Amino acid sequence: MKEAQLQRRSIQLLSERGWLCIRIASPTTRGLPDVIAISQAGSVIAIEFKLNKNKQSPLQEHIQWELEQRHIKYFVVRSIYEVHLIVNGELK
Question: Given the DSSP bridges, would you call strands 44-49 and 73-77 parallel, antiparallel or unpaired?
Fold first, then answer.
């Protein structure tokens, strides 16, 4: 599976579970997570999709730190299974 496929399937799953997903894809948004998702209860999470052993860039790591300082949960997701865990509240 390619990263774009994982992203599409994940957004579909989150949307089916009532999450509002905002995909961030622009050269001017370097370092930001791929998706910001907001639950019906108002919880906000950030998701960065990475396959295999791909790693975050230093800028992505810095943005992750900034978001976590603001109490936004940040996930680096490598499989649809991990998205299921997030949706079910099993991955924190």
Answer: parallel
